[in-house]
Amino acid sequence: MKHTSTLLIILLAFSSLFSQEKPIEIKAQLFAKNIISTGMYERDAALSPDGKEFYFTISLNRTVTHIAFSKLRNGKWTQPEIAEFSGKYHDLEPVFHPDGQRLFFVSNRPVNRNNDKTKDFDIWYVERKDNSWGKPKNLGAPVNSQANEFYPSFTRDGTIYFCARYKDSENGEDIYYCPFKNGKYQAPVNMGDSINTPSGEYNAFIAPDGSYIMYNTHGRGKGFGSGDIYISFKNNNGEWMQPINMGSKINTPQFEFCPSLSADGKYLFFTSQKTNPEIAKGCRSYEKFKKFHNKPQNGNADIYRISTKIIKILKKKVSKSKTTSSINTNLFVL
């Protein structure tokens, strides 16, 4: 009888062990540390559909912004170079079109090549030609206007989402989209107050299937600090649900922005200005100060990558909750 009781206890212990859902290790990591994320100001992330090219924005005191790229060779990223179509004007926010043959970006370059005068920020694109890019082309109306247009992203059906400040904007920038029908873009549509706030929305990235959208905003409460990334899912009726903070695995007391996805859907890229905790302890020598200054996580922007499993978990939490406002994204157990 004693042996039977002991065996029963052991079986119950094993049953309890395997019945518990194991926590999923999800952690944001610097992308291509000391190659792409270096301690300079790097932001935006556009990974080519084949995963072999990476385009991003580099900035110098925010007065100069160019698009750089790196290639994956033998499992390692090459030292970045300025893209052949960039280097003269303010170019930023690259993104691949779903067709993989066009790279879109934002620029203040002149529309008229015979006029060197810069204009407001428009959405431009280059087309793939063999192993290089063609000359930049302005996307034109109705997407571009006399106002600034920023941060394009696309659904698979060609609909373009972007940020702008138009007459019908609540106050700051709002998120708009232009449906793509019969080979043409339709007039911009404001996403409305289910997404937009009077404080402004920035860097919006739409999921390829249009089922969720991620963006940065200051307009939904204190959050974690300077500026956080939020996500909104569509419900079964195709309506946008209340956006929720993406939580402490992504957001920090510093500024997080510029979300994007890899074409295979495995990774979420984002930009963060979080700092190395060691910096807060101070630098008692010039050499140590210089060392921190020339490394990632020095307060400039760095590019991070995290598994999109975090999005699946968030969606699961939203679906189980009666109201998205009841979700505490500060306390994820992943």
Q: What does this molecule look like?
A:
The chain has 334 residues and is mainly beta. 33% of the residues are buried. Strands 2, 3, 4, 5 and 6 form a five-stranded antiparallel sheet that branches. The protein contains three helices and 24 strands. It has helices at residues 2-19, 286-293, 309-320; strands spanning 29-30, 41-47, 53-60, 64-73, 76-77, 81-82, 91-96, 102-107, 122-129, 132-133, 137-138, 149-154, 160-164, 174-178, 180-181, 184-185, 189-190, 201-206, 212-217, 228-233, 244-245, 256-261, 267-272, 302-307. Strand 4 and strand 5 (76-77) form a beta hairpin. The chain has a single domain (24-324), classed as TolB, C-terminal domain (Neuraminidase, 6 Propeller).
Give a short synopsis of this structure.
The chain is mainly β and 334 residues long. It has three helices and 24 strands.
